[in-house]
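Sharing a chain and its predicted structure for anyone who wants a worked example. Both blocks are below, sequence first, tokens second.
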Amino acid sequence: MLNLILLPQLVSRAKWNNPDVRFKHLSDVLRVQPGSVIDFAVENGPRGKGKIESISSVEVEVSFQWEQTIEANFLPVRLLIGLSRPQTCRKILEQAAAMGVEEFHFFGADKGEPSYASSTLWTSDEWKEKIRGGVEQAFSTHLPKCKIYENLSSVLKETETASGFRIGLDNYEATGGLTPITLQPEEQVWVAIGPERGWSPDERNLLRDNLFELRHLGKRVLRVETAVVAAVGILGINSLSKD
């Protein structure tokens, strides 16, 4: 169940009709009644309370009282992820957004399937909805950035001037295990994670050429979505928070 409902813009009142997903969530999941008070937020803006003014089988009307805008509380973690199966990327978008990563950079990998980039996840707004779902779950309001690149070289070229630690996860040629990192204010950590079949030799060399240290998550081979969550967890949610 969502911990709050995100709205695209600041409004004082709103009406939603069936089959709008917000109507369905309020009616079928939360089963609100007139007078019920629900948590809402504005994308990249304030949180607040929504009061159910009226609800029927076809329409709900809500009035809002907004609080002050909260500051973005992202972790200074930016993910570079080889495009994987759409169901895998859906999990990554939702779970990593809930954990607070600041940016997603997906790219076509040498060992990946080219058709993944043309799935409905990426050709529609579904990827945005997955990010929104993660942010709503986290009771936050700020949405991480997300962009897709043709290949690893393209994303590294765009980010080559960015400062911070650079880590590439790899099961075979890592120099050591991934450990927590102490960052100074305004520093970032870039984490590169390959697709299901891993890195190609050229991609490993490209990472090294761009000053990425290859690290592992232990002897077990993890699913991509599990590796993402494990890496963000090891890097330390509390110690990395910008609050």
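Comments welcome. The first helix runs from residue 21 to 29.
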